[in-house]
Amino acid sequence: MSKTYLITGASEGIGLEVARLAAASGAAVLMVARDAAKLEVAANSLSGAIRPQTAAVDLADAAALEAFIAALDGRGYVPDVLVNNAGHGASGAFVDADWAKIDAMLRLNINALARLSHWAAQGMKARRSGAIVNLSAAVATRPTPYFAAYAASKAFVTNLSIAMSSELRAHGVSVSAIHPPAVRTSFGTAGKADLKSTLVHKLFPTVGPVTVARAVMSAVRRRRRSVIIGPVAGIVMGTAPILPRGFDLAFMTLLFKGKRAAA
User: Fold this and answer.
1) Is 150 annotated as catalytic?
2) By the 8 A CB rule, do 228 and 234 touch?
3) 180 touches 221 (CB < 8 A)
4) CA nearest 45: which of 75, 15, 70?
5) Residues 6+ apart with CB under 8 A from 67
6) Of 5, 77, 146, 150, which one is the catalytic site residue?
7) Confidence check: pLDDT of 190 > 70
8) How far apart are CA 195 and CA 174, in angstroms?
9) Which strands form 81-84's sheet, in the order they lie side by side?
10) What does the alpha-carbon distance between residue 89 and residue 92 come to, in Å, rounded to a whole number?
């Protein structure tokens, strides 16, 4: 029987590439994103024996999320693999940020991810099989001025994932946190995370969404608790516990402040 994948943020970037790899492997894929038109175009671009299903849902809307879960429960649907990829970014000084943007980001990055993880884990535990993969980030291990709320949300993702992994491994369920550096998607553009003017975007090599998608698929196969993608992410996460905090904060400020934030 084919595996089933539920992938959020699947209309572009990492989520789309995960969906592409899963579909090519013969999996039955349920692609979830907010924009129905983009989602349909994305689904039509996939090749596989089973046509992907789509669900246009604003996961940052708690009522819409609960309605989506209720619809899945009504079908008796529990995926073999849940990939929580959907996420927003917000850069700039925290105190100067638009609260509506911060609130929407936290509801998506934290609340929606936790709710879907909790829902899927219950079904997987009862079935004694399954995998949950949560997209975190290399900055999850560091307080990051001018990217503060985003980095803090990814710290939540990493800690939740690793703790869930410990709780669920004996029940046949793996939970993985994926930690990429900057990824070549629309995430860093103006209107989203808006990182184009920052030194972190100018100085450090990025990785492509296909690289991250392959890491996601590998984490499912190998049941890995934590995956760090590439040397930049390895350095960022490996040095976090050993650098003096004052130096670390000054360094992260230099990388993430950017011309926009400095103005």
Assistant:
1) yes
2) yes
3) no
4) 15
5) none
6) 150
7) no
8) 33
9) 53-56, 28-33, 4-8, 81-84, 130-135, 173-179, 226-228
10) 10
Is residue 109 predicted with pLDDT exceeding 80?
Answer: yes
Mean residue pLDDT across the chain: 92
The per-residue pLDDT for range 1-55, each reduced to its tens digit, is 789 999 999 999 999 999 999 999 999 999 999 999 999 999 999 999 999 999 9
Q: Which two tokens stand for residue 49?
A: 């024996």
215 CB-side CA count, 13 A? 24
Q: How many residues does the chain have?
A: 263
Virtual CA dihedral for 230, 234, 236, 238, nearest 10 degrees?
180
User: Cα separation of 82 and 133, whole Å?
Assistant: 6
| b/e code 24-57 from CB counts within 10 Å (16+ = b) | eeebbbbbbbbeeeebbebbeebebeeebebbbb
- Residues 6+ away with beta carbon under 8 Å from 235: none
Burial bucket for residue 121 (CB in 10 Å: 0-12, 13-18, 19+): buried
pLDDT, residue 187, reads 61
The C-alpha atoms of residue 180 and residue 228 are separated, in whole angstroms, by: 6
Q: Which amino acid is at 168?
A: L
Tokens matching residue 7:
């992938």
Q: Is the dihedral of CA 163, 179, 64, 20 positive or negative?
A: negative
- Nearest alpha carbon to residue 39 among 15, 67, 61, 69: 15
